[in-house]
Write a structure and sequence with these properties.
Distance between the termini: 36 Å
Largest sheet: 2 strands, antiparallel
Helix content: 40-55%
Mean pLDDT: 86
Low-confidence stretches: 137-143
Order of helices and strands: HHHEEHH
Strand content: 5-15%
Strand order of the largest sheet: 1-2
Shape: elongated
Number of helices: 5
């Protein structure tokens, strides 16, 4: 299974936020620290905020924070949210795709089962299990 870059970046961002839960992160801070696109992260922050996983605050000391403890956020929940609308294969899409063998296909059920097992396994872990702490300043190589 291949995750979209939207999900990949979202996971990295949430991992970092879980590593310092009292800190409010701006999209610029996260982009700089993780080496990711600020615009892309801003879209992810907006998506996660609408879903209730993070809260955003404006003004001085503002930024994004987790809406609840990382130990209460299951990884499968995050993947489902960020991969929403991205079917594993074309025939899983809302319109069923344009598969010429759909009625005779023996693969579809197996792929659904594998996808469910993948997400169930991720549901056994929480964001707290993969929290990413900040790099120590003395470990960062000078540029």
């Amino acid at each position: 299974m291949r995750l979209t870059s939207f999900t990949d970046f979202g996971l990295r961002m949430l991992m970092r936020m879980a590593g310092d839960p009292s800190r409010a992160f701006s999209s610029a801070d996260l982009a700089d620290e993780l080496g990711l696109s600020r615009n892309h992260l801003a879209k992810i922050i907006q998506h996660l905020s609408r879903a209730g996983l993070i809260e955003t605050r404006r003004g001085g000391g503002g930024g994004a924070v987790l809406a609840r403890p990382a130990a209460e956020i299951r990884l499968g929940q995050i993947i489902r949210l960020l991969e929403e609308g991205q079917p594993l294969v074309e025939c899983f899409g809302a319109d069923g795709g344009a598969c010429s063998i759909d009625a005779r296909c023996g693969l579809k059920a197996r792929l659904r089962s594998a996808e469910a097992a993948f997400l169930a396994d991720l549901d056994r872990s929480t964001l707290a299990d993969i929290a990413l702490t900040p790099r120590s300043k003395h470990l960062i190589k000078p540029q």
